[in-house]
Automatic annotation (TrEMBL):
Residues 34-46 have a biased composition (Low complexity). Residues 29-48 are annotated as: Disordered. Residues 56-197 form the Tim44-like domain. It comes from the Bacteria. SMART domains: Tim44. It holds the Pfam family Tim44. This is Preprotein translocase subunit Tim44. It comes from Caulobacter flavus.
Length: 200
């Protein structure tokens, strides 16, 4: 059973755009026809080739000692599915989808960004130009808290429409998303506690 990822971003600044938190542009920007987005991985077996060996292998062993059923491939599949869902929900202003995925303070930040966009008469849509790459960068256990850092490389196309017309922005992003879970809890969900820019 795939572990579900519940997002609770501890933002350092108010998110005036979700895409501002998704990393800087990296490498050459896409110019050729992109590969189609594969179906979400939540209902298919994880591809072991997409599971990187953690930098801290000792930490992964400690995590498995406390949570024997932890499977990096399944964890990354859940992270990918949630990443796509939250990205599209924010662009669409889908509050019902976002609310259960975000902590109250983070939802307030997202709400402010969506409300500002709506007040300006702007609408947005987003698509992933290729399946995001998810690598388990590191894992560790501190006390009863498990922590896993996921490196995310993605190609994102954003369309913004307003009275001034339509703007299209294609970018490659690189991020580190840090997830935590209370190992004493019966709740299997992980919480996203940090988003930072990664080196490509």
């Amino acid at each position: 059973m795939l572990e579900l990822i519940v997002f609770a971003v501890l933002a350092a600044v108010v998110l005036y755009q979700l895409y501002a938190t998704l990393g800087r542009r990296v490498g050459r920007q896409p110019e050729d026809t992109p590969a189609p987005v594969a179906a979400p991985a939540a209902n298919r077996p994880a591809d072991s080739t997409e599971t990187a060996i953690p930098v801290n292998a000792t930490g992964l062993a400690a995590l498995r000692a406390r949570q024997p059923d932890f499977d990096p491939g399944r964890f990354l599949s859940g992270a990918r599915y949630a990443y796509e869902m939250i990205l599209k929900a924010f662009a669409a202003g889908d509050r019902e989808t976002l609310k259960p995925l975000l902590a109250a303070d983070v939802m307030a930040n997202f709400e402010g960004a969506m409300a500002a966009r709506e007040a300006e008469g702007r609408t947005e849509s987003v698509e992933l130009l290729a399946q995001p790459r998810m690598d388990l960068d590191s894992a560790e256990v501190q006390g009863d808290t498990a922590r896993a850092v996921v490196r995310i490389l993605a190609e994102v196309r954003t369309r913004s429409t307003s009275a001034a017309g339509e703007a299209v922005d294609d970018r490659r992003t690189a991020d580190l998303w840090t997830f935590e879970r209370d190992l004493k809890s019966r709740d299997p969900n992980w919480t996203l506690v940090r988003v930072s820019v990664a080196e490509a």
